[in-house]
Amino acid sequence: MPSSLLLYKNAAPWADGLFHCPWEHQPSCSHQPAKLMCNYDKFVDSHLKPYRCKVDACQNVRFSSTGCLLRHEREAHAVHGHGDKPHACSYEGCSRAVPENDSFATGT
Ligand SMILES: [Zn+2]
Ligand SMILES: [Zn+2]
After folding, report:
1. Which of 7, 13, 37, 69 is 20 to 30 Å from 101 at the Cα level?
2. How much is the average pLDDT of 68-97?
3. DSSP, residue by residue, the chain
4. Terminal CA-to-CA distance of the chain, rounded, Å?
5. Which residues surround ligand 1, an ion (CB under 5 A)?
6. Which ranges carry the C2H2-domain containing protein first zinc finger domain (predicted)?
7. Ligand minimally distant from the alpha carbon of residue 25
8. pTM over 0.70
9. Confidence class of residue 44 from pLDDT cuts 50, 70 and 90?
10. pLDDT bracket for residue 39 (50, 70, 90)
11. Does the pLDDT at position 74 exceed 60?
C-alpha cells in the first residue's frame, strides 16, 4: 500500500482529541486541528491532491477534490458537456451519467 494511503488509514485523534494535519507546522500547511475525521481527510487531500486528469497531456495536473477535477475536465476538455451526446458520460459520480437499464425505456 502506498504510504499516502496510510495517511488516511492511520488517522487518529491526538491526545487533545483533535485530528492534526500530517503537514502541520510546514510552510505549505495552514490547517487548524479538526474535531472531525472527514476534515482530516480533506487536509490530506489538499496536500496530496490525489485526483488526476485522465488526459495524457495533464499527467502532472492534480486536484484536491473530485469537484475540482470535474470542473477542470469540463473547462479544459469539454468533458461532461453532454451537449449532443447526453448519454455518453460514463464518468463515475457524474450526475448526468445514465443508468444502463434506462435503455429499456426507449427500446419499444
Ligand atoms: Zn495541512
Ligand atoms: Zn486535463
Report:
1. 69
2. 68
3. --HHHHHHHT----TTS-BPPTTTTSTT--PPPBSSHHHHHHHHHHHH--EE-SSGGGTT-EESSHHHHHHHHHHHH-TT--SS-TT----TT-TTPPPGGGHHHH--
4. 49
5. 21, 23, 29, 31, 43
6. 49-78
7. 1
8. no
9. very high
10. very high
11. yes
* CA 30 to ligand 1 center in whole angstroms: 6
Which residues, including other chains, have CB under 8 Å from residue 4's CB and lie 6 or more apart? 44, 48, 50
pLDDT greater than 70 at residue 35:
yes
Rounded distance from Cα 11 to ligand 1 centre (Å): 13
Taking the centre of ligand 1 as the mean of its atom positions, its distance from the CA of residue 91, in whole angstroms, is 29
Residue 4 CA to ligand 1 center (angstroms) comes to: 14
Distance 75 CA to ligand 1 centre (A): 27
Strand partners, 63: 51
